[in-house]
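#dry-run=false #mode=assembly
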Amino acid sequence: MSASSYARIYAVVRRIPKGRVATYGQIAELAGLPRQARQVGYALAALGDARVPWHRVINARGEISLRSRSGPEQLQRLLLEREGVAFDAKGRVALARHLWQPRGGRR
DNA sequence: AACATGACCATTA
DNA sequence: GTAATGGCCATGT
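#status=ok
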């Protein structure tokens, strides 16, 4: 069941520094799964309770992705603000300011 | 096996 | 700025 892919995804998410955010597509690429952003979201959804900073992963628009059913979206924003990530009036994060930018493509 | 759904993304108009 | 389209692929019915 391709659990190793999930493991790679979690490993990358764990590397996101505090106060930074990353996009699903970015995580997918860093995890060696280009164009599989969707799987990243799926992996995080199946995460449940684990020591992974899932709240630092947002979509390419800089917004917090809405779950099918009301989920911890509010909590996610709270956790990010608590780390110093700012949201604008439209509820978007300034990616130019908070996006995680690993150097040399790896870190 | 077919079909639908989902914490997505890039391109094009 | 919005809207439509195609791609990607694990899961459940």
